[in-house]
Automatic annotation (TrEMBL):
ATP binds at residues 8-13, 113, 148. GO terms for molecular function: ATP binding; magnesium ion binding; shikimate kinase activity. It catalyses: shikimate + ATP = 3-phosphoshikimate + ADP + H(+). This is Shikimate kinase. Catalyzes the specific phosphorylation of the 3-hydroxyl group of shikimic acid using ATP as a cosubstrate. PROSITE patterns: SHIKIMATE_KINASE (PS01128). One of its GO terms (biological process) is chorismate biosynthetic process. It comes from Streptomyces pilosus. Substrate binds at residues 30, 54, 76, 131. Binds 1 Mg(2+) ion per subunit.
C-alpha cells in the first residue's frame, strides 16, 4: 500500500499502524532520502534547490516501489512527477486528506518544512490547489482524516482497499 497526501496529514503515523496491522514493513521515501544523502531535506532544499530535491526524490520513489512490498509513505510532493504518477497506476494508493485548519493543528506549520517556512497557511492552501487533483488522480481510495484518530484512519484505509489484517 502506498500513502500519499500533504505534509503533516499523518502518513508516517498511520503508515506505521497499517504496517503493524498488516504484518508488513513500513518505509518512507523522505527517510530514504535523508539516509542516502546524510543530510536533512531542509538542507537539500537550501543547498541545491527544489528541482535537485525532486530529482533525488524521483529515484528514491522508483527504488522504493520496486524494492519494498509493505506500506510505503511518499513525500508530500512526490506526485508532482509525471513518471512517478505513471508508476503509481499499478499500486494500491491511499490519499490521506485534511483541511487547512487540521493542517495547522497537526503541524503548527513549522519551519522544519521548507515549503511552508513563510506564510504557512497561505502556502499550504496554494500547494493544495496545485496538487489536490494529482493526489486524486493517483488515488485508489481517498481517506479523509479530519476529526479521526490515527487508528480510525488506518481502519478506514484498510476498509477502503478491502485489505484483511495479518
Ligand atoms: N489522525 C490524526 N489526528 C490527530 N493528529 C494526528 C493524526 N495523524 C497524525 N497526527 C499528528 O500530526 C502530526 C503529523 O503526523 P505525521 O508525521 O504522521 O504526518 P506526515 O504526513 O508523515 O508528515 P510529514 O510531511 O512530516 O512526513 C504528528 O504530530 C502526528 O502525531
Ligand atoms: O510537500 C512537499 O513538497 C514536501 C513534503 C515533504 O514530505 C518533503 O518531501 C519535502 O519537505 C517536500
Ligand atoms: Mg512523514
Amino acid at each position: 500500500m502506498v500513502l500519499v497526501g500533504p505534509m503533516g496529514v499523518g502518513k508516517s503515523t498511520v503508515g506505521r499502524l497499517l504496517a503493524e496491522r498488516l504484518g508488513v514493513g513500513y518505509r518512507d521515501t523522505d527517510d530514504d532520502i535523508v539516509a542516502a544523502e546524510n543530510r536533512t531535506i531542509a538542507d537539500i532544499f537550501v543547498d541545491e534547490g527544489e528541482a535537485a530535491f525532486r530529482a533525488v526524490e524521483k529515484r528514491a520513489v522508483r527504488s522504493a516501489l520496486t524494492g519494498h512490498d509493505g506500506v510505503l509513505a511518499l513525500g508530500g510532493g512526490a506526485i508532482l512527477d509525471e513518471d512517478t504518477r505513471g508508476l503509481l497506476a499499478a499500486q494500491r494508493v491511499v490519499y490521506l486528506s485534511m483541511d487547512v485548519e487540521e493542517a495547522v493543528r497537526r503541524t503548527g506549520l513549522g519551519a522544519a518544512r521548507p515549503l511552508l517556512a513563510v506564510n504557512p497557511r497561505k502556502q499550504w492552501r496554494e500547494l493544495m490547489e496545485a496538487r489536490r487533483h494529482l493526489y486524486e488522480e493517483v488515488a485508489t481510495a481517498v481517506v479523509p482524516t479530519d476529526g479521526r484518530t490515527p487508528e480510525e484512519v488506518a481502519e478506514a484505509a484498510l476498509n477502503a482497499l478491502e485489505l484483511k489484517e495479518a
